[in-house]
## 1
Amino acid sequence: MGNKVTTAIFPVAGMGTRFLPATKSVPKEIMTLVDRPLIQYAIDEARAAGITEFIFVTSRGKGALEDYFDLAPNLEEELRRKGKDDLLEVLQQTNMDSGAIAYIRQHKALGLGHAVWCARRLVGDQPFAVILPDDVIAAEKPCLQQMVEAYEETGGNMVAAMEVHPDKTSSYGILDVVNEEGNLLEVRGMVEKPKAEDSPSNLAVIGRYILSPTVLKNLDEMKKGAGGEIQLTDAIAADLDHGRKVHGYRFAGQRFDCGSKSGFLQATVSYGLARPDLREDLAEYLKSIVPGLD
């Protein structure tokens, strides 16, 4: 049902103030989780889901993000000369074909909805994905790939969903669910950052979306929502008002909020322990500093 999803938008215009002073000169998306920057995890997930066109919504000071995906011919030649083929292969995985990536500037921080709207002319009238690199999801099958497979049956709009503690609903877009069938949630409403007592559920929208181009038309109205920002959640909810379907998808995997320091540290430990070349040393160190750790 519907068209194939081949385009993804990556909103990366944020200043990363929670990671100052590091983000004074380094874009947050370039900060490394073990030995790969956050943005590489997002790109790899998109590729696994069949994405071939990548749109980055950036802002001032993000030049290093663009450079990261450029070729490094001198470095590649040096690795070849020294016979470091394993490192050469890793390096080449960061390269992007000419024309595969487009960069759009968001000149003012007006919200996630506005950032996505900035890419409207490149998206056109096709369904598209949105990936928030701050949300790193460790999964046997990448989260967006799970969603794309489900979307082929549902069409409409789809958002990744997970349960959060009721006290945390004011930090998320929250789903009002009318029916559940397996991993699919039939949604009848969405509320951005509700107080716990006003929240329709504790099912939060996480940073993976598959959206209809009608959502971009809804964003044309530039309606301000929670926090005085143009909210993507509100534009998706507007599709419900027009009788268009919205589904939540309970993904299989563990999500890390790498937009927070604690979440970034948790992800670092988890991904480090998952690496065969790092597991033993890291596990021994953790046992030495955490009494009773198995």
## 2
Amino acid sequence: MKGPAQGPPHPTLRTLTRALPLTPATVLLLLFLAGPIAYCAYIAFTDLQLTGQAEDSFTGLENFRTAFQDEAFLNAVWLTLVFTVVSALLGQNTLGLALAALMQRASKPVRTLVGGIVVTAWVLPEVVAGFLLYAFFRREGTLNAVLGWLHLPTQNWLYTLPILAVSFANVWRGTAFSMLVYSAALNEVPKEITEAAEVDGAGGWRRMWHITLPMIRRSIGTNLMLITLQTLSVFGLIWVMTRGGPGGKSQTLPLFMYEEAFQKSMIGYGTAVALLLLVAGSLFSVIYLRLLRTEV
């Protein structure tokens, strides 16, 4: 005699069964990611210091009010914006796209040589890249040696134009990522479409603007989001080259945060700056993600 027929499992039980394999990863994320972020968020609302303090106290929004009244913080915000726009949005993104497009038409030996040089700069540790670019831009460096050989005026680039020098260094080091992203995207563009446009009389710039760029729009948005977030957190490269100087002329938010938290021992204030930087990165991510949802 057959027993009573068993119905389908309860939806809650089915959901728990499916979520069970994700439990270890979820616990690790909560423990090592969400936990430290939550603790840092708490510290940002206190007057915690590294030395000379028996106990910290809750100060509310005082650290954030202090930041927006601090000329050094506002200067760091401006320089971070300049550094991000010049080195990421204009530099890495544009140069990476240009290299990827040129390498589509280049011969294999040229692609191998150019790709190897660009990728080598990318895989170098940030500190090593910083020392190399410091040697390039310093008063007795390679750039001034070349300019002197050409009988052109020289200057101490790390003193007169420090934010542009570190922006160029970031472009030199990070362009490979954009080049690889765009190379993969351009390989996915159907050749039949571009060839048909060429037959119809469309020049190279028109094909790029009206056909290629719209078809790789999602890759552009993804690349912009990733290089923007990476550039916002650059620390070692600038620290090795200028340490934020001279006179704070290349002090971006990560360097300002480090100085306030670890050199001046104001952990609460430095963490508040870090939290603001995290919010800025989140806003950039939301903007890029909303742009990616828009259909061509």
## 3
Amino acid sequence: MSTVHFRFLALAAAFSLVSPALSQAAGALKPFKDELFSAQILLDQRDGGDFRHVDYQEMRDINGRDQIPEKRVKSAYVSLGVRKAQANETLALPSGPLDVFRAGQATGAAFTVIFIHGRGGDRRLGANDYTFGGNFNRLKNLAVENGGVYYAPSVKSFDSAGATAIADLIAHTAAQAPGRPVILTCASMGSFICWGVSRDAKAVAALSGMAVLGGATDPDFSKSAFHKAKKPVFFTHGSADKVYAATDQIALYDRLHKAGYPVRFTLFETGSHGTPVRMTDWREVLNWLLSR
């Protein structure tokens, strides 16, 4: 093994896991399969660690991780006991009925995480234990094991109507656990929902933070209620994304960070459009957003 590879492994041990200070913070999520999901090789970092450039290799991170590439992850990456705490539901919201997948307690949850799928998806995408390298199974387990709740709704449209439906879902979950954090996460075209919700002052008041995974850039984010409230945003993106260019999202991050806005970014080297959904370290993201 080369000296360079040893250095990468050392950097991974030093930086890819949640920092000791954060691990000791009140409310930090307990580890769950961190040795499989969090041991990512750090290539570079800047801005005091707020921007992290992480190694990604398709042969290792897809073919080496999946029993059937992109269809079924190896069993070591999943824990299926969480299925006892999950359900498919249809919520009656002011904007109309909304089909959701839920994992965790419906009322009194310590925190809420909402995941918005991209084009062509529905609630099944965020509920699938075996696709995307088992990353949604980990997210479900992190929520349930820490007393939280995870929702994956079926978004009917990625416009103002879709944003209104999710704003209603945010209000619903906030009412079920008053005063507890709510985190909105959006992947790919689902990012349009995050940006739309960011303009809804009532929804923003109930949110604690957002994460955008391989999403579009909002050039007018600085005009939003979310920006004015200075609530944290965590971006993850593949450097080779051909749908939404990483350079556009990095430019937004740089503007925000330069202005002192609470923001982080993980860039997966050579990663494609779907890489962030597979590789995002949910424990790192949630711990940072919940600690702000």
## 4
Amino acid sequence: MTAPTGVGAADRSRVRAARGGSRPRGGSRKFSTAPRPRRGSGAGRRKSWTPWLYLAPALVVLGGLLVYPIYQLGLISFLQYTQAQVSGGEPTTFEGFGNYSELFSDSQFWQVLLATVVFAAACVVSTLAVGCALAVLLTRVRAVPRLALMLAALGAWATPAITGSTVWLLLFDPDFGPVNRVLGLGDHSWTYGRFSAFLLVLLEVVWCSFPFVMVTVYAGIRAVPAEVLEAAELDGASQWRVWRSVLAPMLRPILVVVTIQSVIWDFKVFTQIYVMTNGGGIAGQNLVLNVYAYQKAFASSQYSLGSAIGVVMLLILLAVTLVYLRLLRRQGEEL
């Protein structure tokens, strides 16, 4: 049995009066009674500093391993620093941009720079092509061949650069190497000609670099939903079309990482060139910037010029990386 209408209305009026008034006619609004943290409060400052506290140990290590050596490299590049200054026979003098002027006026520097850019670009493209192709192949083969390919690739990846370079020299040796016998090239010397020597080094660089790309891209492919790939195959897309239109766009953040890593590694190749071409080839025909800097700094005792070459390499790599990332951001990619 319900209460009369008048009594119910009076009760509701008393309840609203006890709560502090009636509701506004425009509808009900709920307000939170919890106090909001003020800007600049202690809690807000602690939250903003918390991530940096977690990153502090890593930043300290990176500062000791990267910042200080880069500072010393830049400092020496502005000084007159040769064997005379190292031994204390002459005082160290400030040269300003004199070392850079001498470096940029040297025609050999520009030849070596061009050779380094072309060689690094060829290595990056070849490494990405081989690594991505084998990553797709891993998704198509059975468990046993996939395991064998993974173990072989990881073995190549784990091989030290100097060991791998020596093995490749033995394989392509003009007298005892099996490659010339199989190809019927007789006593052809791969390290005598400029382009054949660069090709031999490129093959070794790709051999020891593609496993990183293969494993990383393979992990990314395994994370792609199987329904997406099945839908593309049902639509009649070829393997190349699936890669170009489906996998590559979805794996673009991963491809950015492996591309930048490959650019950095291949641009500063040293061991393979130095070992396989005996320090830069005949008359320096196979020099790259890293080997050129080594010759200037240690073979000629011009440490300031070697440091200047190192600074130029650092600036080039930073510029290439920043431009590449900026182009991707313009395309709307989230990295």
